[in-house]
Specification:
The chain is an alpha/beta fold. The chain is built from 8 helices and 8 strands, in the order βαβαβαβαββαβαβαα. Strand 3 (60-66), helix 3 and strand 4 (84-88) form a beta-alpha-beta unit.
Length: 214
C-alpha cells in the first residue's frame, strides 16, 4: 500500500520538519490539497507553500486541485513541483481537453469525483489518466467520517482496471485510518491519503506503518 500524508493536517509553522518526519516513516507521496473557497467551502494553500519543499524530500508531490478553473492554475502548481495534478470531474466542462492540457505541461494526470458523483461517468476517460481519486468524504475539511458507499466506487475502478488493462492507480482520500484503509485495500485501492490519522497521531510512525502494511 502506498501512503500519502495530507499536509492539510500538518503544522505549517514547521512544514519541512513535518514532511521529513513522515517521509522517514515510509510515506510514498505528499498529498497537497488546494481549495479555492468556491468549488469547496474552504480555502487552503497556493503553490508557494510547498515550493520550498521540492528537492528537500524524496516524495512525489500529489497535488489535488479542488478548484473551479484547474487549467488556469495548473502550470503554476507544476512549476512549484507538482508531479501529479488531480482535477475534479465536476469542475470542468471538457474533461478530455483538461486531461490533455495538464499532460502537455509535463505532469501526470489524476481525476477525482465527489461522493455523490456516479463513478461510471469516468468510463470514457479512464484510459487517459494516471490516477483516479475517490473522495470518501465531502471535500473541504479534514477529520470527517469515511463514507462507506465509496467502497463500491473503488471496486468498480478496480474491476475496470483489470478488465481493460488500464494503468491508473486508485487513490482514496477521506476518513482514512487502519480500519477504513483495510476496507479500501480489499476493494482495490492502491494509495491511501491520510491527514488527521497521521499528523494528529500520538505515534506518527505507527500510523504510517499501520497503513503501509495493509
Amino acid at each position: 500500500m502506498l501512503v500519502a500524508p495530507s499536509i492539510l493536517s500538518a503544522d505549517f509553522s514547521k512544514l519541512l520538519e513535518e514532511v521529513k518526519e513522515v517521509e522517514s516513516y515510509g510515506a510514498d507521496l505528499l498529498h497537497i490539497d488546494v481549495m479555492d473557497g468556491h468549488f469547496v467551502p474552504n480555502i487552503t494553500i497556493g503553490p508557494d507553500v510547498y515550493r520550498p519543499l521540492k528537492g528537500k524530500v524524496n516524495l512525489l508531490f500529489d497535488v489535488h486541485l479542488m478548484i473551479e478553473k484547474p487549467t488556469l492554475y495548473a502550470k503554476q502548481f507544476i512549476k512549484a513541483g507538482a508531479d501529479i495534478i488531480t482535477f475534479h470531474y465536476e469542475a470542468v466542462a471538457d474533461v478530455a481537453k483538461t486531461i490533455r492540457f495538464i499532460r502537455n505541461l509535463g505532469a501526470k494526470v489524476g481525476i477525482s469525483i465527489r461522493p455523490k458523483t456516479d463513478v461510471t461517468l469516468l468510463e470514457n476517460y479512464l484510459a487517459d489518466v494516471d490516477l483516479v481519486l475517490v473522495m470518501s468524504v465531502e471535500p473541504g475539511f479534514a477529520g470527517q467520517v469515511f463514507i462507506e458507499d465509496s467502497l463500491e466506487k473503488i471496486k468498480y475502478l478496480s474491476e475496470m482496471k483489470k478488465e481493460r488493462d488500464f494503468q491508473y492507480l486508485i487513490e482514496v482520500d477521506g476518513g482514512i485510518n487502519a480500519e477504513t484503509g483495510l476496507k479500501c485495500k480489499e476493494a482495490g485501492a492502491e494509495i491511501l491519503v491520510a491527514g488527521t490519522y497521521i499528523f494528529k497521531a500520538e505515534d506518527r510512525r505507527a500510523a504510517v506503518e499501520s497503513l503501509k502494511k495493509l
